[in-house]
Amino acid sequence: MSSNIRWHGSDLSFDERCRLQQQRPMTIWFTGLSGAGKSTLAFALEQRLVADKHAAFVLDGDNVRHGLCAELDFSAGARSENIRRVAEVAKLLNNAGLVSICSLISPFFRDREIAKQIIGEDRFLEVHVSTSLAECERRDVKGLYAKARAGKLVDFTGVDMTYEVPVAPD
């Protein structure tokens, strides 16, 4: 980081933001294989929270790769950077008083732990969407498993890249 920049804090405290939003912000982090149902659950949760008058926003893995993380590939290192960036944005949303709902494969334990550290353990709720690989392949609405099995897609979680199942999700 450059020494020419500094953090500018707000005059509005976190507690004041919580009072204004009438909620305690947190991040709900959905993790699981492609096709497990993470995005479906994340957007359904967002709808429910908003219907109950809570400010919430979904950071979906596919969506962030259209802009914020567009230049990243799917190698292990790029996946780590993708998760780090999303965690930083989730933290900013939390600091603004919103509930962040993150839906990312996030296959590695270490990366999920880093996300938890960035966001803050007291604001991080990990949800493992535990859907079998066979069921995810059956769903395969994007055709990604078929491409990976045919060798046309590399570093695909569940086929040629591992998914580390959370040990103790919330």
Structure explained in plain terms:
Residues 24-170 form the APS kinase domain. Keywords: ATP-binding, Kinase, Nucleotide-binding, Transferase. InterPro entries: APS (IPR002891), APS_kinase_dom (IPR059117), P-loop_NTPase (IPR027417). It catalyses: adenosine 5'-phosphosulfate + ATP = 3'-phosphoadenylyl sulfate + ADP + H(+). GO terms for molecular function: adenylylsulfate kinase activity; ATP binding. A four-stranded parallel β-sheet has the order 2-3-1-4, with helices on both faces. The chain is built from seven helices and four strands. The chain starts with 13 loop residues before the first helix and ends in a 21-residue tail after the last helix. With 170 residues, the protein is of the alpha/beta class. The protein has helices at 14-21, 38-51, 61-64, 76-95, 109-119, 133-139, 144-149, and strands spanning 27-31, 56-60, 99-103, 124-128. Helix 4 runs parallel beside helix 5 (109-119). It is globular and about 55 Å long. It has a single domain (16-149), classed as P-loop containing nucleotide triphosphate hydrolases (Rossmann fold, 3-Layer(aba) Sandwich), CATH 3.40.50.300.
Q: Main traits of this protein?
A:
170 residues; alpha/beta; Rossmann fold; 4-stranded parallel beta sheet; APS; APS_kinase_dom; nucleotide-binding; P-loop_NTPase; ATP binding
Strand arrangement, major sheet: 2-3-1-4
Distance between the termini: 34 Å
Shape: globular
Tell me the series of helices and strands, N- to C-terminal: HEHEHHEHEHH
CATH fold title? Rossmann fold
Give the assembly state of these chains. single chain
CATH-defined architecture: 3-Layer(aba) Sandwich
Mean pLDDT reading: 94
Number of helical runs? 7
